[in-house]
Design brief:
There is one protein chain. The chain is α+β, with helices and mostly antiparallel strands. Bound molecules: tetrahydrodeoxyuridine. The site of tetrahydrodeoxyuridine (THU) has 13 residues, from helix 3.
Length: about 150
């Protein structure tokens, strides 16, 4: 008898054009909360999880400069700390369309190496859209730690 339960695949939300726009708007909104009194470089990030939920973050700087955390990692730890570990895309919003730093690429790679990375400027223009694995070639991930 055919199952009436939808397959796991069909439950996976598609990163549609509408989701893209929603994610860009969420990243722009998150950027408004950036706490960057030292660099004055405001960053917003928004992750589109495979659950369909969106997790946002902004950079949070600190007088002890190295304690600063980037917007992408704020969004990521918010999601992971709520049990969400799979992502379709991340949007990073800066004034000039800057790319995510190496540490953020590495942290994101752990969970979803194939996620799309959308680099967006403060007007909402998408400057680049690439799979994370292309921004972190030969990335080091959990599979490297499994016995060969
Ligand atoms: N920053 C991010 O939030 N994400 C990045 O990927 C690059 C850098 C922040 C950290 C710091 O608050 C400011 O931008 C300047 O480096």
């Amino acid at each position: 008898m055919p199952s009436t339960r939808p397959s796991k695949k069909s439950l996976r939300p598609k990163f549609t054009q509408q989701a893209r726009q929603t994610l860009v708007a969420a990243g722009k909104r998150a950027r408004q909360y950036a706490y960057a009194p030292y660099s004055k470089y405001l960053v917003g990030a928004a992750l589109f999880a495979s659950t369909g939920e969106i997790y946002t973050g902004c950079n949070v700087e600190n007088a002890a400069y190295s304690s600063t955390i980037c917007a992408e990692r704020v969004a990521l730890v918010k999601a992971v700390s709520e049990g969400v570990r799979s992502f379709e895309a991340v949007v990073v919003v800066t004034d000039n369309g800057g790319f995510p730093c190496g540490a953020c690429r590495q942290m994101l790679y752990e969970f979803s190496p194939l996620m799309l990375v959308l680099v967006v400027d403060s007007d909402g223009n998408i400057k680049s859209e690439l799979p994370l694995a292309e921004l972190l070639p030969n990335g080091f991930g959990p599979q490297q730690l499994t016995s060969s």
